[in-house]
Amino acid sequence: MIRPPDYVQEVLKTLEQQKYRAYLVGGCVRDMVMGRTPHDWDVSTDAWPDAVQALFPRTAPTGLRHGTVTVVTAAGHVEVTTMRREGPYTDHRRPEQVAYVSDLTEDLARRDFTMNAMAVSPDDHLVDPFGGASDIAQKIIRCVGDPAARFSEDALRMLRALRFSAKLGFAIHPETLRGIRASAYLAKTLSAERVRDEVEHMLCSNRPEVLADGLELGLLAAYTTDATANRGEINRLGQVSSHRYHRWAAFSAALKQSGTIISPAQFLRALRLDNKTIRVAAHGADLALSEQIPVDAIACKRLLAEYGVDVIRCMAEVAAFFGCEDSLSQLEAVLSSGDCFSLRQLAIDGSDLIALDRSGTEIGQILDGLLDHVLQHPADNQRDVLLAHVRSRGDGLGGRGLGGRGLGGRGLTGSE
Ligand code: ATP
Ligand code: MG
């Protein structure tokens, strides 16, 4: 089994020296049993939070309501939580109250799955009252206790089951799955933010296809129409680059295509994604589903000028997902050519035009005209060439812009 780093062992030892009991618990134990390196360390203790705060020189009150204090050391953080039993749940989301207990098994019993309900003592003994290690060996996700009751306490556990299945490649135990089927309607009580985080974990995992099960089970019913999602396409989501923009875009495009959502933007907004992700993924999905997929480099550059690289890369990834690989190679060719497609890359800027006595809206119009021209004639993106042209046009650029048309599409240098 993987050994915890020194700073974690120090925290356990400090608690033990004061005659408190202290155990590693939860995800880090699961990861240690699986031979994976944990990304965070959780400790359960019978010391109350104020005692934990008094014992360590640096702590942060990260979850005092649940009895959690974060111990801060130079080498890393350890979340220390007082062992607890949860009181009754009345809203399927959070317990009414928590009660501290000194029995480790009680603390483990409130946890969601057998693999997450194990502990390791400071002398390296595994405490596993619910058969977590055996379920890990069999690659099974199984509720601690009665699934329907556990999902009724906290509906998020249903999404967590699918998330762990996606992340670890484990199967959900048939009884646990039956519990999800029976309790799926409770998922609508969950906050969009909690649902979003779980969906994003699934989406960006190696097995995003579990989302097809999530949709079929009705776990996303609060965000979808009654139309059935196209399972074949959701099953293929793993082919899309694992960047979160691209997975969200491909997922929403697939759902839009089957009528399972009304629009990508509405879906992503309802799931409370951040504005940048909504903009990039929704535009990427919409463009890929539209007739606007660029057929040549100039069209590609025009889209880049209008939407920016993130959106167009997203569009190209989703277009490739739907079988049209061309725009991806088109985009790569444009990007590696170094050709100008944005005002930022234009060889002159507003200050050059001010120096030429241009002002107000005219400046923007001239720059837009020059950009449109340079999209078609990349060789003209040189400071001297562009300045010479602005000078030679006198006031001729104002209002009309070059637009490619002003130059008869020939190019400023006459080289094309
Ligand atoms: P990860 O590796 O993604 O962090 P994790 O299992 O550590 O997985 P956390 O959300 O960090 O997940 O939770 C830590 C532990 O707290 C879990 O292992 C589990 O024992 C318990 N836990 C977390 N969320 C719930 C929940 N909704 N219901 C019951 N127990 C939970
Ligand atoms: Mg964790």
Give a verbal description of the structure.
The protein has 416 residues and is of the alpha+beta class. It is 47% helix and 10% strand. It has helices at residues 6-17, 27-33, 49-55, 104-109, 132-137, 147-153, 156-168, 174-183, 192-203, 210-217, 231-235, 244-257, 264-270, 275-289, 297-307, 309-321, 326-337, 350-355, 361-376, 383-392, and strands at 22-25, 42-45, 59-63, 68-73, 76-82, 84-86, 98-100, 119-120, 126-127, 140-141, 171-172. It has a seven-stranded mixed β-sheet. β8 (119-120) and β9 form a beta hairpin. α14 (275-289) packs across α16 (309-321) and α16 (309-321) packs antiparallel against α17. The radius of gyration is 29 Å and the shape is elongated. 41% of the residues are buried. The model is unreliable at 395-416 (pLDDT under 50). The site of adenosine-5'-triphosphate has 9 residues, from α7.
Topology of this protein?
Layout: H1 6-17, E1 22-25, H2 27-33, E2 42-45, H3 49-55, E3 59-63, E4 68-73, E5 76-82, E6 84-86, E7 98-100, H4 104-109, E8 119-120, E9 126-127, H5 132-137, E10 140-141, H6 147-153, H7 156-168, E11 171-172, H8 174-183, H9 192-203, H10 210-217, H11 231-235, H12 244-257, H13 264-270, H14 275-289, H15 297-307, H16 309-321, H17 326-337, H18 350-355, H19 361-376, H20 383-392
Parallel strand pairs: 2-5, 10-11
Antiparallel strand pairs: 1-2, 1-8, 3-4, 4-5, 6-7, 8-9
Helix pairs in contact: 6-8, 7-9, 7-10, 12-14, 12-16, 13-14, 14-16, 15-16, 16-17
The structure holds adenosine-5'-triphosphate and magnesium ion.
